[in-house]
Amino acid sequence: MKYTRLTKEQLEALHHDFAVFLATQQITADEWEQLKKEKKHIAEEEIDIFSDLVWEKSLQKVSFLERIDKKSIHCFHFQDTNAKMISVQVSDGNIDLTEPEGFLWLKKNMLSDDVQLFTGEKTYTTERNMEIFNLIQQGMQISDGQLFISLNEMLN
User: Fold this and answer.
1) Distance CA 133, CA 148 (A)
2) What is the DSSP string of 23-77?
3) Is the pTM of this model over 0.90?
4) What is the pLDDT of residues 51-109, one digit of tens each?
5) β-strand pairing of 141-143 with 115-123
């Protein structure tokens, strides 16, 4: 298995898609019920294959990831062959970047000694989707990219 198995809740939400997947494998509803009872390992393999397909399709659509905590922001923009990163660290103890006021403070004080900015670019060392998946596993969230774009504009 390349990624992780979808949870029971995720599989339930994708029930129709899973039924279509089984149909493409020429597995009927009755055969599926029989597999689950009599050949659990084969049923689990089918769930694993479906999970990888869902992850692959979903990760292909991801362009931006981010993580915000009280004192830091980490944003990534994923392109075809590389990823760009913007990271912000705030040392002022009164600032909380998870609050709207914290981000407003950051906009006004971007050049302050209390703000450290880091940028970087990395060529993928593994395949693109796996790089994204690994960051999601580490707590990054899929985003629309507005934060990355805003920070990038502040830097330029």
Assistant:
1) 19
2) HHTT--HHHHHHHHHH-HHHHHHHHHHHHHHHHHHHHHT--EEEEEETTEEEEEE
3) no
4) 999 999 999 999 999 999 999 999 999 999 999 999 999 998 889 999 999 988 988 88
5) unpaired
